[in-house]
Amino acid sequence: MRRPIRRRPLSMTSLIDVIFLLLMFFMLASTFTRTTELPFSAGASGQGSVAQSKLVFVRLGPDSLSLNGTALTFESLVSQLQERKAPHVLVSLGAQVDSQRLADLLIRLKSVPGLQAQVLG
């Protein structure tokens, strides 16, 4: 007569080790911080009109920046906007402007209190 096969109890240690390693991997591979958010509104028809005296126009090119047609640098743009006390800025993008240059401009505009930037398409 044959002896019955006796089964060993399964060890949970190796399973717990694998789960722990997966948990550590996903905790280290993911990030829980938010990246910088740049809120802006795109131009659309039908939005409320803005008073022309409080409206300024910024033209952004790959190598240039102008405020109402006057060439400026990023450093002087913030001071000019604070002097004019304009609450609304229209930003027009020139050809070949990359997203990093637009992000740099929007970060500078964000430092002006009470300013709303609207990017034209």
Describe the protein in words:
- The chain has a domain at 41-120: ATPase, nucleotide binding domain (Nucleotidyltransferase, domain 5, 2-Layer Sandwich), CATH 3.30.420.40.
- 33% of the residues lie in helices and 20% in strands.
- By secondary structure, it is α/β, with parallel strands linked by helices.
- Helix 3 (99-110) links the parallel strand 5 (88-93) and strand 6 (116-120).
- It starts with 12 loop residues before the first helix and ends with a strand.
- The chain has helices at 13-29, 74-84, 99-110, and strands spanning 41-42, 55-60, 65-67, 70-71, 88-93, 116-120.
- The chain has 3 helices and 6 strands, in the order H-E-E-E-E-H-E-H-E.
- The chain is rod-shaped, with a radius of gyration of 29 Å.
- A 6-stranded mixed sheet has the order 1-6-5-2-3-4, covered by helices on one side.
- This is Biopolymer transporter ExbD.
- Belongs to the ExbD/TolR family.
- It is a single-pass membrane protein; Single-pass type II membrane protein.
What's the arrangement of secondary structure elements?
Layout: H1 13-29, E1 41-42, E2 55-60, E3 65-67, E4 70-71, H2 74-84, E5 88-93, H3 99-110, E6 116-120
Parallel strand pairs: 1-6, 2-5, 5-6
Antiparallel strand pairs: 2-3, 3-4
Structural class given helices, strands, pairing? alpha/beta
Helix fraction, binned, reads: 25-40%
User: Spatial order of the strands in the main sheet?
Assistant: 1-6-5-2-3-4
Terminal CA distance: 87 Å
- Which word captures the global form? rod-shaped
CATH level-four homologous superfamily name of one domain: ATPase, nucleotide binding domain
Mean pLDDT: 79
Question: The CATH topology of one domain, please?
Answer: Nucleotidyltransferase, domain 5
Task: Please describe the biggest sheet, giving its number of strands, its sense, and whether it closes into a barrel.
Answer: 6 strands, mixed
Oligomer description: single chain
The poorly predicted ranges are none
Element order: H for helix, E for strand: HEEEEHEHE
The percentage of residues in β strands lies in 15-25%
Number of strands: 6
* CATH C-level label of one domain: Alpha Beta
Can you count the helices?
Answer: 3
CATH arch. level architecture of one domain: 2-Layer Sandwich
Determine Rg (CA atoms, Å): 29 Å
